[in-house]
Specification:
signal; 140 residues; mainly alpha; transmembrane; transmembrane helix; extended; MFS; MFS_Na/Anion_cotransporter
């Protein structure tokens, strides 16, 4: 329900161009135009440049991100699917009476993600780790 409400609000409020926004003032519109100017697409043909599909598909960084994301998703959904079965059949936990306990791995995932993000940003800002290295370590 929340996603549907968000979609309705998004489609009613968000526009592609500042000039199409219903509630923008002239001062705001001028500020945006002066700050970012016209884009390359709007200066020439009002069309976006073609998608460099061949370059994308032959890019090692793209495949690294794709494989890492796929592996992370498979691992997450395997945990999501089989953890309750494991807890019920192997550990003999009644999932209905210990629902909070069954959510601990996911709570741990959220907390660990926030901590790693915060610590990683601190290390990057202080110059102890490069952005690319931080991304690789975080994904791992």
């Amino acid at each position: 329900v929340a996603c549907l409400v968000w979609c309705v609000v998004w489609f009613l409020v968000v526009t592609s161009k500042p000039k199409d926004y219903r509630w923008i003032s002239e001062a705001e519109h001028n500020y945006i135009k002066q700050s970012i100017g016209n884009t390359v697409a709007s200066k020439t043909t009002n069309r976006a440049p073609p998608l460099p599909l061949r370059s994308i598909l032959t890019s090692p960084p793209f495949w690294a991100i794709f494989v890492a994301g796929l592996g992370g998703s498979v691992g997450f959904f395997t945990l999501l699917t089989y953890l309750p079965l494991y807890m019920k059949n192997m550990l003999h936990y009644d999932m209905k009476s210990s629902a909070a306990f069954s959510g601990l791995p996911y709570l741990g995932f959220i907390i660990l993600s926030l901590v790693i993000g915060y610590v990683g940003d601190l290390l990057r800002q202080k110059g102890y780790i490069r952005t690319g290295t931080l991304r690789k370590v975080s994904e791992t």
